[in-house]
């Protein structure tokens, strides 16, 4: 690569990082405005090539400064910004385990944390398949047993589940951390947000109805599989 090509590649990479900074700030702002995050709970990351941007530790997601987002290299070593969130390892390993994962969001969303306190439907599926859009847009969401925030063992559990569910052709887009809330991911910010929103609102519906509704029947699930290729 000649110097001119090298400069052009570096500029393109910097532009991609700047674009990702803007996306993270936008997502943090909308999550805060809609009550999905509070105080300094939660974190957001984006994979840019072999680097990762992530919100700093103890950052308030509704008031992010793009210049202070933590940037880490391919080895996970920080090269810019404030100190990275304690969940950096989990975010990076999700992206390594699922090649389609480029944007990761973790919140302490009220109804999903409440669900872990009240009792999930099952450890393999924290919510029953109540609505067609939950089945199509979210899919299976396993519960991760409680570990302290930032515990690296959580990354081992999540990546093992990603591999197992991919092998069974029911890939997952999210997990629920006991007492800590959801972690969702997708190829871009819009997709990850859509998963988070549908997941939180379905938890809200189930809790509002005292966890009484029956799941969709088998024939309805089969119709969603055959018509929309739902991974359920």
UniProtKB/TrEMBL annotation:
The keyword Metal-binding applies. It comes from the Bacteria. Pfam families: Aldolase_II. One of its GO terms (biological process) is pentose catabolic process. Residues 22-207 form the Class II aldolase/adducin N-terminal domain. Its EC number is 4.1.2.-. GO terms for cellular component: cytosol. One of its GO terms (molecular function) is metal ion binding. Gene3D superfamilies: Class II aldolase/adducin N-terminal domain. Keywords: Lyase, Metal-binding. InterPro entries: Aldolase_class_II_sugar_metab, Aldolase_II/adducin_N, Aldolase_II/adducin_N_sf. This is Aldolase. It comes from Streptomyces tuirus.
């Amino acid at each position: 690569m000649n110097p001119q090509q090298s400069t052009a590649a570096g500029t393109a990479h910097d532009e991609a990082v700047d674009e990702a900074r803007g996306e993270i700030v936008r997502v943090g702002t909308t999550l805060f405005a809609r009550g999905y995050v509070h105080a300094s709970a939660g974190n957001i990351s984006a994979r840019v090539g072999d680097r990762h941007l992530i919100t700093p530790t103890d950052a308030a997601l509704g008031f992010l400064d793009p210049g202070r987002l933590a940037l880490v290299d391919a080895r996970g070593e920080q090269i810019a910004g404030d100190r990275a969130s304690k969940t950096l390892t989990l975010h990076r390993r999700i992206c390594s385990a699922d090649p389609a994962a480029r944007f990761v969001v973790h919140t302490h969303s009220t109804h999903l944390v409440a669900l872990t306190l009240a009792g999930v439907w099952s450890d393999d599926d924290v919510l029953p398949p109540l609505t067609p859009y939950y089945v199509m847009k979210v899919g299976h969401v396993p519960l991760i047993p409680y570990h302290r925030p930032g515990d690296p063992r959580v990354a081992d559990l999540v990546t093992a589940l990603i591999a197992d569910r991919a092998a069974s052709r029911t890939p997952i887009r999210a997990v629920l951390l006991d007492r800590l809330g959801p972690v969702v991911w997708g190829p871009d910010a819009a997709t990850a947000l859509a998963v988070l929103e549908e997941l939180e609102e379905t938890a809200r519906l189930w809790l509002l109805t005292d966890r009484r509704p029956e799941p969709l029947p088998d024939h309805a699930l089969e119709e969603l599989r055959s018509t929309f290729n739902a991974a359920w």
